[in-house]
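Hi support team,

I'm filing this because I wasn't sure whether my run with EPU finished correctly. The job status page said complete, but I'd like someone to confirm that the output block is well-formed before I use it downstream. Pasting the exact inputs I used:
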Amino acid sequence: MDKIQITGGRQLKGEVFISGAKNAALPLIASSILVDGVCTFENVPRLMDISSIRLLLEDLGASCKFEDHTFVVDGSGIDKLEAEYELVRKMRASILVLGPLVARFGKAKVSMPGGCAIGARPVNMHLSGLEALGATITIAAGYIEATAENGLIGNEVYFDIPTVTGTENLMMAAALAKGQTKLRNAAREPEIVCLADALNLMGAKISGAGTPVITIEGVNRLQGATCRVIPDRIETGTFMVAAAATRGDVIVRDCVPDHLGGVISKLKATGAMVKTFEDRIHIKGSETIKNIDIKTLPYPGFPTDMQAQFMALVTIAQGNSMIHESIFENRFIHANELLRMGADIKISGGNIANVRGVSHLQGAPVMASDLRASASLVIAGLIAQGTTVISRVYHMDRGYETIEKKFEALGADIKRISS
Ligand code: EPU
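And here is everything the job wrote out:
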């Protein structure tokens, strides 16, 4: 298993180019199941999770090609309606094939995703939403079976909590349902808007994406289209935090500053200088990092996917910072690794971290527990005195494209140790 070795203490300087968003690319690729033809997706990042969904689609019978960040899927050959455990267990987002399969073929069998390091992560709202559209759902032997032999029928769907992949699954399913569907209390993330735009290019009739109420007028069929994946707002935020933490001076390019309202506001509160332009952000860290309080919330609130990186930053802030994780119940595993590097963090009630700033972190061997935790440890390694070796970086490879090369180009002393 590969490791990442970082010797900290260098200020990041220069420009970094942001890749396409993993969490936008995955639903787009899944949406190609709805189409009896060819879909082309541009700006797709080269990541483990993209390889995972490719394997899944190919197993269903689709043919895929992935070159120069362009992913082409021909879904005309799909003849298997089952997403197997061995493929789903590698990536929970595989649940995204459920809605499209049942919508196009009237039947789907998808291995039930289990919990993961960050929480239980149930899919009950995906299932009750599909039931509202007329699907019959049964769960047996670890598999979800959904059937709608005469097709799905539009209806009202209310989500108890805004769910990102749940909203995406239902939006895809409703695109081919008979009549109108309204998704209420829908997730509003930019990735939802990206998927709605792509589906509309394929011939769907979706309005309201990006607001809590999405209206979908079902159509009989969708056709192939060429769609572009939006820039990764979490990768953007990760480089911004790394720049601030190292008191660096970095221009983050090919991003959408509008998608980063919460992150920009919190970085400014730490004292960093942040200037936004149409598709780039200039960030300059300040010598003194001020303490801040953060509560993760559904978009446009502060993203849970940026919580771990900010925790690394405030370990060296002046004073006490409070971080409240309200989306996932177990998303502080990185805190224990940061403690090993000299941070002062106390967790109370399971989802509140009190971080008392220390003068510096010290390099140490640490272990990544999930994707964003691994980004947090990279940032901690960049600011620590001495050398940090991060193991289990396969978590990072799921969602960050050539991250060590991008940091190296900004002046970091970072390398991958392959085993
Ligand atoms: N939830 C339920 N029932 C459901 C669905 C969700 O109770 O049927 C709960 C979850 O347990 C959680 C909350 O609702 O407490 C929100 O979860 P959501 O469904 O929005 O999460 P997700 O769709 O599984 C996506 C991203 C995650 C990101 C979250 C929150 C993708 C592929 N994944 O997950 O990304 O953290 O939204 O923004 O889009 C990552 O990239 O590292 C990552 C974990």
